[in-house]
């Protein structure tokens, strides 16, 4: 089903200049899935040049017309849902049903963005001088580099590509080397649905090679990146050297707080879903569970019992599995207790057993580092103020959740917690196409993806100051 994954440049599938390939392995059984183009700086230059040429005619179309094309892509993706989801499931190892949900989420993003063709509101405002009016025009930036993670490959590309091209940019996508086929499927589908050649290009390969070349390319106007904070820092430094606009959506060490007035049945369900779905490979996964003392023992007991029945999903690579298991081992060596998991499951594929740790210091490595795997740590606290202190004791600030029956506690938490998204009585993950998503501190650079906020990433608001009656001034 998945053949060799090539670059897509100027509407054509092309080999790399070097002719080199990477091998993509299936996480579910460690067998070879496909070869992937291993691109370099020359391939990047070809893609950026194609994007630059295609961009102006694309930008000349009306926003309504670009929105219509985005809608056509979304509808074609909906039509090809089974094919798309099967590719996602195969290259990530996630269950087909989860992949279908992600395909649907990618479609929804397209439909939301398409509607902006008939909105894209700007501002008109007053001028201090008479006979003038002031208004804004939304303008494309030019060529956008879209670099992304593997975890939910179709939404990852959809969240960036749809608003980027809708705003009148041309784009060069650099998918994760761990999930190349889904992104290529998306881009080929976009071409089929009517996105002009050169408007959406894809270059595959390793981050340090093709990704870095893209970030450094002088003709790239915007770098939009989703991935780890360490890569984000490198990209930000490189892009800053040439003062390129950057939007970084980075990691999280998200906390879910369970208060003593919470519905514990629901809290258990949401902890499990937030910590372990997608094998914990979510920027918004709950890797810290902060529990008020009166219900700590009860919740711990329930979690340890419930985790046994969970369906397991492999993590994306052997390196990832070894890194996650190593971190749990290190926590154990430092005095923490592993209540569940902490081992590789005895079955084909890179399965890490859902892992629950307790007794780790909030300042310990396992409490501070993002593991991006099915590992969560329990903390016992005296009251809500202590809980908020533990939650905020993190370099990250992406999402946070609280389980409580008290509107006062919920609101106090929402006001004080350092996070871009706060959820009351549900999970730490879950986003909507029409709501901005992003974090504070090391979780990003302050931009929001999705929502109308995404338009601010991919366009520039030009202020027009217009004299309406020159004869009067
Ligand atoms: P990663 O940083 O290793 O890689 C992300 C992408 O960057 C890949 O395509 C990779 O090839 C590329 N890359 C690596 N080095 C590069 C370089 N020097 N220059 C340019 N590109 C480079 O991250 P990952 O392991 O793929 O993804 C996991 C991370 O992504 C986690 O931290 C997770 O929280 C984060 N994430 C964040 C969000 C969000 O919306 N905030 C969403 C999903 C994932």
Helix and strand layout, with pairings?
Blueprint: E1 7-9, E2 12-14, E3 21-25, E4 32-37, H1 41-60, H2 63-79, H3 81-92, H4 96-115, E5 124-125, E6 132-140, E7 143-147, H5 153-166, E8 170-174, H6 180-193, E9 200-202, H7 207-216, E10 222-226, H8 229-241, E11 245-249, E12 254-258, H9 264-276, E13 286-292, H10 293-306, H11 318-333, E14 337-340, E15 355-358, H12 365-368, E16 375-381, H13 384-392, E17 396-397, E18 399-403, H14 407-416, E19 421-424, E20 440-441, H15 453-458, E21 459-467
Parallel strand pairs: 7-8, 7-10, 8-9, 10-11, 12-13, 12-18, 13-16, 15-16, 18-19
Antiparallel strand pairs: 1-2, 3-4, 5-6, 6-21, 14-15, 17-20
Helix pairs in contact: 1-7, 2-4, 2-6, 3-4, 3-6, 4-5, 5-6, 9-10
Bound molecules: nicotinamide-adenine-dinucleotide.
The site of nicotinamide-adenine-dinucleotide has 26 residues, from helix 7 and helix 8.
């Amino acid at each position: 089903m998945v053949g060799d994954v090539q670059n897509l440049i100027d509407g054509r599938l092309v080999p790399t200049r070097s002719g080199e390939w990477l091998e993509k392995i299936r996480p579910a059984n460690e067998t070879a899935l496909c070869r992937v183009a291993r691109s370099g700086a020359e391939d990047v230059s070809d893609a950026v040049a194609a994007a630059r040429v295609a961009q102006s005619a694309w930008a000349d179309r009306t926003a309504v017309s670009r929105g219509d094309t985005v809608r056509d892509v979304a509808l074609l993706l909906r039509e090809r849902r089974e094919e798309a989801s099967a590719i996602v499931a195969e290259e990530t190892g996630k269950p087909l049903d989860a992949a279908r949900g992600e395909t649907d989420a990618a479609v929804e993003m397209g439909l939301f963005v398409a509607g902006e063709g008939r909105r894209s509101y700007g501002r008109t405002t007053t001028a201090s001088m008479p006979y003038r009016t002031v208004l804004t025009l939304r303008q494309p930036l030019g060529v956008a580099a879209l670099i992304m993670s593997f975890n939910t490959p179709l939404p990852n590309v959809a969240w960036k590509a749809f608003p980027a091209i809708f705003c009148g940019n041309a784009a060069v996508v650099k998918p994760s080397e761990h999930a190349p086929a889904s992104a290529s499927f998306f881009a080929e589908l976009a071409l089929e649905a009517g996105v002009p050649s050169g408007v959406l290009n894809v270059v595959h390969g390793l981050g340090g090679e093709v990704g870095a070349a893209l970030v450094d390319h002088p003709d790239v106007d915007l770098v939009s990146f989703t991935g780890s904070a360490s890569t984000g820092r490198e990209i930000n430094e490189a892009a800053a050297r040439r003062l390129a606009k950057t939007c970084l959506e980075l990691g999280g060490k998200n906390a879910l707080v369970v208060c003593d007035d919470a519905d514990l049945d629901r809290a258990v369900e949401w902890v499990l879903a937030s910590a372990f779905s997608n094998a914990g490979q979510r920027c918004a996964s709950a890797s810290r569970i902060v529990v008020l003392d009166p219900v700590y023992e009860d919740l711990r007991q329930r979690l340890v019992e419930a985790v046994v029945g969970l369906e397991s999903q492999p993590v994306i690579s052997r390196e990832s599995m070894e890194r996650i298991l190593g971190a749990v081992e290190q926590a154990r060596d430092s005095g923490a207790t592993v209540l569940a998991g902490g081992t590789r499951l005895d079955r084909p594929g890179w399965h890490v057993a859902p892992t629950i740790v307790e007794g780790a210091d909030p300042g310990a490595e396992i409490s501070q580092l993002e593991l991006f795997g099915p590992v969560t740590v329990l903390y016992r606290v005296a009251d809500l103020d202590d809980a908020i202190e533990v939650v905020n004791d993190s370099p990250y600030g992406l999402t946070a959740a609280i389980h409580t029956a008290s509107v006062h506690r919920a609101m106090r938490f929402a006001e004080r917690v350092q996070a871009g998204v706060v959820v009351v009585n549900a999970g730490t993950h879950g986003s909507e196409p029409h709501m901005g998503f992003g974090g504070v501190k090391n979780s990003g650079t302050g931009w929001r993806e999705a929502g109308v906020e995404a338009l601010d990433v991919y366009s520039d608001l030009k202020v027009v100051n217009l004299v309406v009656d020159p004869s009067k001034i």
